[in-house]
Amino acid sequence: MGLVILALAAGGWWYWRVRSKPAITFRSEAVTRADLIPTIDATGTVEPQEVVDVGAQVEGLIISLGTDSNGKTIDYTSQVEADTVLALIDDTLYQADAANAQASLEQAKAGVTKSIADLAQMQAKLEQAKSDWERAQKLGVGDALSESDYNTYKAAYETAKANVGVDEAIIDQSKATVTQAEAALKRSTQNLNYCTIKSPVKGIIIDRRVNIGETVVSSLNSPSLFLIAKDLRQIQVWVSVNEADIGNVHVNQPVSFTVDAYPNDVFHGTVGKIRLNASMTQNVVTYTVEVNTDNSDGRLLPYLSANVKFEISNHRNALLVPNAALRWYPDASMVSPQERDAYLADKEKSHKSGGSDQGPTSRPSGKAKGKSHRPQQAKGTVWLADGQYVRPVKVQIGDSDSIMTELIGDSLHEGDMVVEGVEDTSAPDNSTNPFGPQTQRRFGR
Asked: How far is the CA of 86 from the CAs of 18, 55, 190, 228, 352, in angstroms?
């Protein structure tokens, strides 16, 4: 009797296990038609198109700041015109240098006047000595003119002639001194003018790096006092692009980007320039690409971080399949019996040729950053539900983004349901086992 009861219990347990065996259902997604825009994703920084760094060429104490076009003290975001006074440096020492240079110039000019007067005096003495010498030559040495006097007249003439030459040289020297004094005055005057820091362009102050009371020390490099953006209505995004993606970037290429300040807004621009001076960081080579964009509304602020998408191509009304459907592959037991042998053969062939065990056909990588653009006419496989099994459909695939891939040809049609994975109800319902957990597990390969 006990054996009969035990047998009935075992049969009941076996029957309960059979009934509670999880039923596999396929998770499918429809093939759709929509626009596909494959992109290269990168990050960048919003930068003004033209920035002027205003520095100081002299040393000294900042004694005051200028005023902007609204009459307010120069500060961040101040609108300035060309030649607007930005700051003043204490010019006491430079005024003294300029006054000293001016005095030196006047002294040099007086020296020229004196040299000219001395030359005129020497020329008069030369004329007298010349007359005496000519008269002595006519008389000759004799009773009227001794030999000593004769030689004296000759020497006086030669001396006077030499003195004229000396005075002419002194005049040239005095004129050179004047030129030197003028240069010194110009230099000291320019240094005095440098004490007034002016804006070289019309623009907006985006950085003020000096305060009243600070001492500006000019060394080998000019100290930076103000940073002025010339025009923020036209702005750029400087984007770092990986060397693997730079081949798909070209001038005038459409670009879209977002910034964290306006997460729901998409901004647009075009590639303006690809800089050739690549940089290497941890053996990764990147190029800086300048993207030009309109900022007439002034919403984009300098140095915002931008998430940029370079549009590689634009496919209108393309037939699209989810990337997950191209990546998924079934277990052999899920494949339709009519297709199972061919599937196993293809899988074995792929394994022997060094391919992956993840299926016999090529599949998209699904990477979003620059790896989604593939050569046209690549091969792939998707799976359609066939009752409790799936059957393969060979497809030609084109461009892809991080979510969808373009299908080429007529292997599939809009509305076809392609398998992305399977759902497994791993626990029986309440009618089968009221004490089991009530969760449902989803999985896909």
From this structure: 87, 11, 17, 11, 75
CATH number attached to the domain at 57-90+196-229:
2.40.50.100
pTM, entire model: 0.65
- State in words which class domain 39-48+231-312 has: mainly beta
Average pLDDT, the chain: 83
Q: Which of 391, 358, 356, 368 is nearest to 308 (CA)?
A: 368
Nearest to 317 by CA among 444, 187, 407: 407
Q: Could you state, in order of their start, the residue ranges of all structural domains in the chain?
A: 20-35+318-443, 39-48+231-312, 57-90+196-229, 93-194
β 389-400/404-408 pair status: antiparallel
| Residue indicated by tokens 């030196």 | 104
Q: Where are the beta strands (DSSP E) in 282-401?
A: 284-294, 305-311, 315-322, 378-386, 389-400
Helix (H) or strand (E) holding 102: helix 92-139
Domain 93-194 has CATH 3.40.50.12780: no
Q: Which residue has the tokens 């030009």?
A: 292
Label residue 409 by pLDDT band (50, 70, 90): confident
Q: How far apart are CA 361 and CA 338, in angstroms?
A: 18
